[in-house]
TrEMBL record:
Transmembrane segments: 40-58, 70-94, 100-123, 135-154, 160-178, 199-224, 244-267, 274-296, 302-324, 336-356, 362-385
Domain of life: Bacteria
Protein name as annotated: MFS transporter
Organism: Pseudolabrys taiwanensis
Pfam families listed in its UniProt record: MFS_1
Presence of the UniProt keyword Membrane in the record: yes
Xref: Gene3D superfamilies: MFS general substrate transporter like domains
Domain Major facilitator superfamily (MFS) profile stretches: 1-183, 210-399
Any one Gene Ontology molecular-function term assigned to this protein's record: transmembrane transporter activity
Keywords: Membrane, Transmembrane, Transmembrane helix
InterPro entries per UniProt: MFS (IPR011701), MFS_dom (IPR020846), MFS_trans_sf (IPR036259)
């Protein structure tokens, strides 16, 4: 069992870079290929929506198949091949198609890894192991971003793809070291040992009040959160504070480094105090972040803003799958529920940039940050107002 858990940590480290495909490097590469910002944004948006729409069905698929490791392998390799295809053609339809493949494949990886984790350690050990998973994932993001940036600077964009491909191959090798005999496939979907799931996934999800509250809260959180980083870079450039791309890279590293200890802290708090508190702390960080960003006047303002981003994202990376697992324990539809919640997150994130951009155009950047912070306060208010519902679900423990 210990060897399988060590391999799982390695998978989370190496797959971190793969799941995003080209990530932030794609826009720069396409810009060099004479794409307009509008074309780049449209291609990425289409890919993001494809992944968002696929997340819930793929979560349901994860619940019903035993080949969960194979699903991660297929997803990782699909992303690598789709990313390589960008080198062969830069036509709009072809590149957009690669982003659709990347979005759908990435949507399968998260629920599959969550299910494998739950199958290996069960409900009792899920918070601790998921915290370890997310810490390795964030560390992998930092390392891969540093390697891709350095080799890309020296050798060109081909080196960025080479780093991603190497991470993908290594993640596949690590997956092979997870012994399938160690995975309890009933526990992996949250199914009680003595029963089969009688209700359909759809009926379970739409009638589960704690899950609906969680989904609505996360939609509001990501509506307030997703646009804050790109808007901050634009704000600093508008102030003449320096190079926006350098600042953006620095903010990503600051946030990811903060997420590592936050993921470990979230796991400890979930075990001792419950997930409700973890969510409350994550939600509280965002309005404070918006307030600071509204009055940040230079690069020095980046540090506290992105530390708070790391606090919120690091806590939620552990709390979201953990609380979904507790809420839906015994239904056999945990991963379908996780996929549905991730879809709501995606809707909020997709709308965030449009809302923030419109406010910034009309009233300025400071007002836009305050507006994003106000949306975050709505998420916090909803979470506190429904505390009785969510706390009761958080207290569910495996028998």
């Amino acid at each position: 069992m210990n060897s399988s858990l060590a391999a799982l940590s390695a998978v989370n480290f190496f797959v971190a870079d793969v799941a995003d495909g080209w990530g932030p490097f794609l826009g720069v590469y396409l810009q060099q290929q004479r794409w307009t910002p509008g074309q780049i944004g449209l291609a990425m948006t289409i890919g993001g929506f494809a992944g968002m729409l696929a997340t819930a069905p793929l979560g349901a698929l994860v619940d019903h198949i035993r080949a969960k490791r194979l699903l991660v392998v297929v997803g990782a390799l699909a992303i690598v091949f789709a990313s390589f295809a960008v080198f062969t053609t830069t036509g709009f339809v072809a590149v957009t198609s690669t982003q659709i493949v990347t979005g759908i494949a990435a949507a399968a990886i998260g629920p599959a890894l969550s299910a494998i984790t739950l199958g290996l350690v069960g409900q009792a050990g899920f918070a601790r192991q998921n915290g370890r998973n997310q810490a390795y994932n964030h560390a992998g993001n930092v390392v891969s971003a540093a390697l891709a940036g350095a080799f890309g600077y020296w050798l060109g964009f081909g080196a960025v793809f080479a780093v991603m491909a190497a991470m993908a191959v290594t993640s596949v090798i690590a997956l092979a070291w997870i012994d399938p005999r160690h995975i309890d496939y009933r526990a992996a979907r949250g199914l009680a040992q003595e029963t089969e799931s009688a209700a359909s996934a759809w009926s379970v999800l739409v009638t589960c009040k704690p899950l609906l509250v969680l989904a609505a809260t996360l939609l509001l959180f990501h509506l307030g959160n997703a646009a804050m980083l790109p808007l901050l870079g634009q704000s600093l450039v508008a102030q003449g504070a320096g190079d926006g791309s350098a600042f953006t890279g620095a903010t990503i590293v600051i946030a990811q480094l903060t997420m590592v200890p936050m993921a470990l802290l979230a796991a400890r708090l979930a075990d001792t105090r419950g997930y409700w508190l973890v969510f409350w702390l994550a939600l509280l960080a965002l309005p404070i972040r918006g307030l600071i960003a509204a009055y940040a006047t230079g690069p020095s303002g980046l540090v506290p803003v992105q530390i708070l981003d790391g606090v919120g994202a690091g806590l939620l990376s552990v709390a979201v799958p953990g609380l979904v697992a507790r809420i839906l324990e015994g239904t056999g539809h945990i991963n379908a529920g996780l996929g549905a919640v991730m879809t709501m997150q995606g809707i909020g994130a997709s709308l965030s940039t449009a809302v923030a951009g419109s406010v910034a155009d009309a009233f300025g950047y400071s007002t836009a940050f305050l507006a994003l912070g106000a949306i975050a306060l709505l998420a916090l208010a909803l979470w506190m107002a429904t505390r009785r519902i969510t706390v009761a679900a958080d207290r569910i423990r495996p028998s």
